[in-house]
Amino acid sequence: MNQNKKFNIRLFRPDLGEEELLSIKDSFENAWIGLGPKVSEFENKWSDYLGCKSSVGVNSATAALHLAVSAFRFPEGKKVLVPSITFASTAFAPVYNNLEPVFVDVDSETISISLDDLEKKYTKDCVAVIPVHFGGHPALMDKILEFANSHNLKIIEDCAHTIGASYKGIKLGLWGDIGCFSFEEKKAMTTGDGGMISSDNSELILPLKANRWVGIDKDTWKRELSIKNEEENNKHWYYEIAVLGYKYNMNDLSASIGLIQLKKIDSMNKKRSGIISRYLEGIKGFNNIKPLLPYEPGNNNYWLFGVRCKKRDKLISFLKTNGIATGVHYMPLELHPFFKRWDNGCMVSKNIWKEFITLPLHTKLLDEEIDYIIEKLKVFDDKF
Ligand SMILES: *Cc1c(COP(=O)(O)O)cnc(C)c1O
């Protein structure tokens, strides 16, 4: 036993309680836990929250990104610009659609897609760009939009790291043609697993309801309702498949949790902002440990708190022996065997990621735990 190990602190932790349990119970009692009315209700409430026309619930942001890219029916072999530091799903989305990802270097401060490199990597074959608001820090959407418009690129925003914040007065997720969100268990809010496709362009995204549900264009529960309304109709079983379908639907069990989480998202964001402020205050003036991002907890909704340190791996071990979980978000994708074939430089990414450490950030983190983490960071910073 390590004497210093006062706590065992998790990196992430979903904020789930009695309310979510009651909401699931409701779905149990109705004995409808698949794609049903709760999914529609969640989609509508989500659209209201974000302030957009339409949303389509799916079982992950990975599925959301896949379907979002498919909505444009880009010709095979065209190219999609993606940041080199992101979760794999951002770059899988073009690959699923028989398109090529083109890695764009990141800005060394914000870790979001670099505008300079975006211009350098652009070629006539490019059809879209997928910016990621890394850690919750907004990508420069006004500039990206300007660039995209002048080159006829579609924008799919990967909003897996932020929910509900605005950049220059416009909600993140609504700057681009389509916004994609994640409700995976570690993310800003959760449905277990889940994702959402949102847009003001209903004609663009509502057809994706068929793609998410094995190609069938009617939600099952709507079919159920029409049976009740037309007792005589013996064609209740009839449907047509006109598009390639996937089994990507959100289900009512997930949506039940999502409806409650949505009510809590603003307060959960606020708690995370408070924790980040406490961290920033605590590490202010450290020489060898610096904040990962130019955090502005009053303006943005962050999902990830991290630091940069030249002795990254030593710090990870040190924190581990003190009962503090850490992570690394993320290794540049080109360094993975699967994405190596698309390696095209991105030297900023390949240098800066070596210093990244993600620290615990979740709504149940106690002040004394944060202070304990800061205390340990201080010990390491002093000894450095
Ligand atoms: C988590 C994440 C995804 C994928 O989300 P899932 O809901 O787990 O599929 C996509 N993009 C980024 C940037 C992510 O962090």
Q: Looking at this structure, what is the CATH superfamily of the largest domain?
A: Type I PLP-dependent aspartate aminotransferase-like (Major domain)
Q: Report how far apart the termini are.
A: 25 Å
CATH topology heading of the largest domain: Aspartate Aminotransferase, domain 2
Q: How would you sum up the major sheet?
A: 7 strands, mixed
Q: What's the shape?
A: globular
User: Any ligands, ions or cofactors bound here, and which?
Assistant: pyridoxal-5'-phosphate
Q: Percent helix among the residues?
A: 25-40%
The assigned structural class equals alpha/beta
Look at the structure and give the mean pLDDT: 95
What count of domains describes the coordinates?
A: 2
Strand order of the largest sheet: 1-9-8-5-4-2-3
Would you state the CATH class of the largest domain? Alpha Beta
Number of strands: 12
Key terms:
384 residues, Aspartate Aminotransferase, domain 2, Aspartate Aminotransferase, domain 1, 7-stranded mixed β-sheet, 3-stranded antiparallel β-sheet, 13% strand, globular
Describe this structure in words.
- This protein has 384 residues and is an alpha/beta fold.
- Helices cover 38% and strands 13% of the residues.
- The site of pyridoxal-5'-phosphate has 14 residues, from helix 3 and helix 4.
- Pyridoxal-5'-phosphate binds next to helix 3 and helix 4.
